[in-house]
Automatic annotation (TrEMBL):
Organism: Deinococcus cellulosilyticus (strain DSM 18568 / NBRC 106333 / KACC 11606 / 5516J-15)
InterPro entries to which the protein is assigned, alphabetical: Phage_virion_morphogenesis (IPR006522)
Annotated protein name in UniProt: Phage virion morphogenesis protein
Pfam families xref list: Phage_tail_S (PF05069)
Amino acid sequence: MVSSTRQVIQGMDALQTELRRLSTLRLERIAKPIAEQMVTSTKQRFIEQHDPQGNPWTPLSPRTVAKRLGGSKAYTKKGQLRKSAVRRMAAMKILIDTADLMNSIQWNVKGGQVAWGTNKDYAKVQNFGGPAGRGLAVNIPARTFMGISSEDQDYIIDVVTRHVSGGS
């Protein structure tokens, strides 16, 4: 009985020692690489045109495509798309007309807390969907670019695990 009590006490002492060690870890050391990865991952979604779960974004509406092509200038007198318009159409990316939104993604670390996002007013409606435009007459489909993918989650767990175990 004394032997098992001694083992429990030793186990408690070891646990307290480990908890003290964990409480001294500097989370800001791992916050920056995590924040940088989240920005990289978010920007990659613009390039790959999908949400954090890998689902493709809703395609551009015909109206948006026509606007980007330059309206009637994109068509021949016979009403067919010009070759240059066809090339532009093939290269069109959702949410990357000017790339302002994608390029506005930034990160911030304060203490051990990570934040990333954009200061663009229109980002919310693009990410979550909803009414937009004059009189809120246009319904924008959600094209989620913010979030944590399973790959992001694996990365975060790996960084934290290495840090906690003393590997970084």
